[in-house]
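Predict the 3D structure for this chain.
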Amino acid sequence: MRFLDCTMRDGGNVVGNGFSGELTRMMLKGLTDNGFTEIEFGNPKGIGAYEVDNVIAPLTDEEYLNEAQPYLAKGFTIGMFLNAKRYRQKYVELAASKGLKFLRVGANAGEGLKISLEPIREVKKNGMLAYYSLMKAYVSTPKELAEEAKALEDAGLDCITIMDSAGTMVPEEVSEYTETLVKAIKIPVGFHCHNNLGMSAANAVAAWRAGAKVLDGGLLGMARSAGNLATEVGIAIMQRYGEFKDINLYGLLEFLDNELIPAMEKEGYHTAIKPLDLVLGMSGCHSSFVKKFKKVAQVEGVSLYRLIADVSAIDRGNPSDELMHKVAAELKK
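Done. Predicted structure below.
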């Protein structure tokens, strides 16, 4: 199972047309420090949008690519989006010259065979992985989408993603679409949730159960419209199912608390599910115990979130002060 973080691409819509260099550097470090290896970033409308459609971002495509150089050199799978309608050969060549690992070509469902085959082949020709986004997937039937996916796979794709671009799908639909594609093609199938119906987390679980191998998400849920599956929420849920154990969730939550949330609040963005509330949900700890946990964590000098999780694993019904101090002492070792 893989997680593709799209914060620095789709999430850039919450501040206009992309993040500043400072925020880009902050998130690249915060993600890679905590175990994320697959990241999509850059102009929210994709590489080339700056010139083709005058979608002016804080940085040009080349400047974004320069920010990624230290991480590409370390082997992280970092890529950009390429809307097939804005495809130009020179943009693919620019990405390849900068060592980008993948380009994710995207087109609305039903349009891919008309406009996406050439860019897919050009991406492969230039030595990069070719990912694909079936945007507005719900406008096709599952059978139609699978037939399109099969034809696109034959062009050389390495991964294909079902995109619920309007956040309109419910788990039963997600299961049907995902199962149909998984049976039709050999390459990994991914799912990209939007949260307009508040179903992004449920849809992510449905996609995973139906055979999806890649989930998309954005830190703090940042993305166009009602947002994506929040990366931290997706990781917390899937770790309960035994997936994504290589992700340091507690380190990620500290990064969100200490760096990203304060920075995004200055931009006018507020997250719906704060890290503390997420920890309460994943551990089954009632919020009425938080005051006691905070006091013990401060006295003992340990992580509040780890203390809540470890104590709740033993007793989440009525944890005692004695148990909290005992677990804190173990954490300090």
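Residues 275-332 form a domain with the Helicase, Ruva Protein; domain 3 fold (CATH 1.10.8).
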